[in-house]
Amino acid sequence: MNAVAEFHYRLPMRSGGVRPGSHRGASFGSGQEFAMHGRLFDYPDPRRLDLRASVRAARSEWLVRVHLQRAAVPVQALVDVSASMRFGTRQTKLEVAADFVEALGHSAFRVGDPLGMLAFDQGARDDLFMPPRSGRGIGNLLATMLRETARSSVGAVSSGGVGVGSGEALRRVASNMAGRQALVFLVSDFHWPLTALPAVLDLLVHAYVVPIVVWDAAEIAPPAGGPLLAVSDAESGKVRSLWLSPSVRERWREGVAKRRAELLATFGKRAIQPFFIESAFDPEAMSRYFLEAVA
In terms of pTM, does the model score above 0.85? Predict the structure, then answer.
């Protein structure tokens, strides 16, 4: 039995949560990080009495050491399950997303954070909704739900009602987390118009957002085979033949580079660095991503 992948994450800011956990908190409690001295009358805990500080105090009163408590952070996986995510050579991009969510569940359990999931395609996928909860098998459960979705028919209709487009569906799903402090992983290939993305990030302004860009090697670079290629649009199902001339191959590479630059620019305006996954999830690279963010 293969070991479950795991990565380490930390937030670069303090958490305002009150549930004990492993992240730096902003509330007073039984932590180890010293915050200030307070009057024993205001913080009646004689165990933290500081005699030296009390003697030096300008006013004759007993002082205690007040510490900041480490807190847990709700973690949300916001996953794109649209038709384009079902493309892939060795495995579909949705299966790669499932591998990531499974690793995320194991990692969140190790640090005591609850994990939930929301999904969207052309509408909200209520059948894939899971509120944040703690447990050893939560990540495996969510990953199984995504893998079953990946094996289902491409033409499956979203259970969230009439399709409105992936960008607008994402905005509606993200509105459920508006104003909440959380760690949000936005998992998608972002093969939809990015005009709706700024509004989504505005809704998640209180959360720490980590965009997970899932691409397959076959869509990053043109194939090295013959000049004629049959392609189909995963979203619309339209099939066409493409003549891979040298100029078309060059435009293909330029299009991928342009899309990467657009994503970097859109997220960069809000000081967000996307994490790119190409064909397979690398937990060590994900750990380095957070180490660089916190450093």
Answer: no
Q: Which two tokens stand for residue 48?
A: 């933290």
Q: What single string gives the DSSP state of each residue in 148-173?
A: HHHHS-TTPPPTTSS---HHHHHHHH
- Cβ–Cβ under 8 Å, residues 187 and 100: yes
Which residues have CB under 8 Å from 73's CB, separation 6+?
Answer: 11, 15, 17, 21, 23, 113, 181, 182, 183
pLDDT above 90 covers a percentage of the chain that reads 44
Tell me which residue range forms the domain holding 54: 28-68
Asked whether residue 222 is domain-assigned, the answer is: yes
Q: Is position 6 within any domain?
A: no
What are residue 219's phi and psi, to 5 degrees?
A: -100, -10
Place of tokens 């958490």: 15
Reported as a single tens digit per residue, the pLDDT across 138-186 is: 999 999 999 999 888 554 444 444 445 788 899 999 998 888 889 999 9
Tell whether the torsion through CA atoms of 262, 264, 268 and 273 is positive or negative: positive
